[in-house]
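<discrete_fold_record>
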Amino acid sequence: MTASASASASVTADSARALHSPVIAWFDQHARDLPWRRPEAGPWGVMVSEFMLQQTPVNRVLPVYEQWLARWPRPADLAAEAPGEAVRAWGRLGYPRRALRLHGAAVAITERHGGDVPREHAQLLALPGIGEYTAAAVASFAYGQRHPVLDTNVRRVFARTATGVEYPPNATTAAERRLARALLPEDQDTAARWAAASMELGALVCTAKNPGCGRCPVAGLCAWRLAGKPAHEGPARRGQSYAGTDRQVRGKLLAVLRDAAGPVPQARLDAVWDEPVQRARALDGLVADGLVEPLDGAMYRLPMS
């Protein structure tokens, strides 16, 4: 039995409640005032934030989020534009396929749900570009529903407090999902608050490096701290290398296209990276991903359809 499976098996209603109250009380005092947490954000604002915050820190998301909602305050507003405009507005947030997925979700919301982000978890999950995490997050944060919401921050909090290990596995496991369900409060409103609070605790206190155990509201209950903070023994944690990678080349190519008012000739794209094989591979990847549209005469543009 894995550590996570063992932990979920040993979680009782009382032990789960012992975590809920102090973490939620801490959140009530220390939660950041973020625009997608305000009532006026609505379900669409929550959904946009969830797409943008995947693999991107809050400080980089904030200005793009504000500009996005000012331009496209409802899904139908985004759906009416070409997908390339979503890629352009995505700017330098990284992983720009998220922009295409968000555009696709906006089109589906407009066509299937009258322009309103659906409430039901199954309907959210059926939208293009939305996986289990995003569906649960929108249902919980936008509609106050009871769902386990497992992002990297929450997984790290659960790994330390309940499992007694420093870091969760590289990919979410079935055991982690069982543990999350075991820790989920029964009351719907409390469950939604717990989802947001445990995520914020991981972002601000139980961080990947230099966790602030002295500021943690559940330090006295944390299995990892009580075990003496044993060092990570699992597979090496994946790094976030960027310089010199295809990702960097893709970013440079997209930057040229985003800044251009119309199609761009091959020669302008060739100028952004000296190594021709890597440059061609990156451009081919952008085309295959639907982020760039090739035209006749060795011209390229952001996608129009």
Observations:
- The first strand starts at residue 264 and ends at 265.
- The CA atoms of residues 67 and 186 lie 37 Å apart.
- The chain has 16 helices and three strands.
- The radius of gyration is 21 Å.
